[in-house]
């Protein structure tokens, strides 16, 4: 098949680097443009990231010699070179919103890792296995923007992918409320231990804005499209506490869940629902889709970030320690790779879904 030409906006940051590595040998996508801030523009990609390359693999050969473009000054140029862009810029939210709309209005679809447009009510925020139907809002967004091809689609916050996928197949039982504590890796802050030595032997009980995202974003994912807008769900009620922990990659969640009276499933039923859970990416056989979305570990000391974050290329999520609770009905532990499933990998899977469903075409 003819490959889609892809740009990475914000290609020098940690998530941008992850996008660049994921484009190497991708069966559908061809990295065609990399853009970043003015201080990186004009340099080769290797020169721009050499001192801060944070991936475990080396810089892809094809990307090394690519000349970095200016993410803001070269919008029209980039839009003319590619079929769509991934966006992972580090700017103020209002600046990101404006920049992503500039690309969309230049008839360049934007698949964003940023949070800036997550609450724009005609921008779909999609976990591909959970709410692919939200892509139906894109024509309404195009009408607002005055575009034919251009639109913005976003992925959700990285931390909710460690627990929302596990709750999703259980929603049919009427989840009343959930309590979630997330233990989040330092790569979620775009850092390594070399660049953040104060995280070694430390836990920081605060991540700005994270608890609000953890409590509210699942409700948009569980919402519905109505009159060209996404209306968020009213329930379940989620309360969250988020901590930064000394782990390189992998967000862990301790989850407590209560079901409506008389609807509580058995533990065996929950495990069966997790094992059977498949979504549109699995039906379509998308290149980045895990064969098994949710894995359950019976061992009492799993999942562990170091052992299990790379499961199915880092695109599967892991659950363990499901057991009854004294105040809620059940409790369990979840794990997802925050820069793969939670960030760049989740956005790549979303882009594959958009291509497969006809929302992104070749120019």
Automatic annotation (TrEMBL):
Please provide an example of a Pfam family that matches this protein in its UniProt record.
Semialdhyde_dh
- Origin, by domain of life? Bacteria
Q: Does the keyword Nucleotide-binding apply?
A: no
Give the annotated active site: 158 (acyl-thioester intermediate), 251 (proton acceptor)
Q: Which InterPro entries match?
A: ASADH-related, Asp_semi-ald_DH_pep-lack, NAD(P)-bd_dom_sf, Semialdehyde_DH_NAD-bd, Semialdhyde_DH_dimer_dom
Q: Could you state one GO biological process linked to this protein?
A: methionine biosynthetic process
What would be an example GO MF term here? protein dimerization activity
Semialdehyde dehydrogenase NAD-binding domain segment(s): 5-138
Q: Does the keyword Hydrolase apply?
A: no
- Report keywords, A-Z: NADP, Oxidoreductase
Q: EC number(s) of the enzyme?
A: 1.2.1.11
UniProt lists the family membership as follows: Belongs to the aspartate-semialdehyde dehydrogenase family.
What is the protein named? Aspartate-semialdehyde dehydrogenase
Native species of this protein?
Flintibacter faecis
């Amino acid at each position: 098949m003819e490959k889609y030409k892809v740009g990475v906006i914000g290609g020098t940051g940690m998530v941008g680097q992850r996008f660049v590595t994921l484009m190497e040998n991708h069966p559908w996508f061809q990295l065609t443009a990399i853009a970043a801030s003015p201080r990186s523009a004009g340099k080769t990609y290797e020169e721009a990231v050499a001192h801060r390359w944070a991936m475990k693999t080396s810089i892809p050969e094809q990307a090394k010699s690519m000349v970095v473009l200016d993410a803001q000054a070269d919008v029209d140029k980039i839009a003319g070179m590619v079929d769509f862009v991934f966006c992972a810029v580090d700017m103020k939210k209002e600046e990101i919103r404006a920049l992503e709309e500039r690309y969309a209005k230049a008839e360049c679809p934007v698949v964003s890792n940023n949070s800036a447009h997550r609450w724009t009510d005609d921008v779909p925020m999609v976990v591909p296995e959970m709410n692919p139907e939200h892509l139906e809002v894109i024509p309404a967004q195009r009408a607002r923007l005055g575009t034919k091809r251009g639109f913005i689609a976003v992925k959700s916050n990285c931390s909710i992918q460690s627990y929302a996928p596990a709750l999703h197949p259980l929603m049919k039982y009427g989840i009343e409320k959930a309590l979630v504590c997330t233990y989040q890796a330092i790569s979620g802050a775009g850092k390594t231990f070399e660049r953040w030595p104060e995280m070694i032997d430390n836990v920081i009980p605060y991540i700005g804005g994270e608890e609000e995202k953890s409590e509210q974003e699942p409700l948009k994912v569980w919402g519905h499209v109505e009159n060209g807008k996404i209306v968020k769900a009213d329930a379940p009620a989620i309360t969250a506490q988020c901590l930064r922990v000394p782990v390189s990659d992998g967000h862990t969640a301790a989850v407590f869940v209560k079901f409506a009276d008389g609807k509580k499933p058995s533990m065996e039923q929950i495990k069966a629902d997790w094992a059977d859970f498949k979504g549109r990416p699995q039906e379509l056989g998308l290149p980045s889709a895990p064969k098994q979305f949710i894995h359950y570990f019976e061992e009492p000391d799993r999942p562990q970030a170091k052992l299990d974050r790379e499961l199915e290329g880092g695109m599967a999520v892991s659950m363990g320690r499901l057991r009854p609770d004294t105040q809620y009905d059940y409790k369990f532990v979840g794990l997802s790779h925050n820069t793969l499933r939670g960030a760049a990998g989740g956005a790549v899977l979303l882009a594959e879904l958009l291509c497969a469903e006809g929302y992104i075409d070749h120019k």
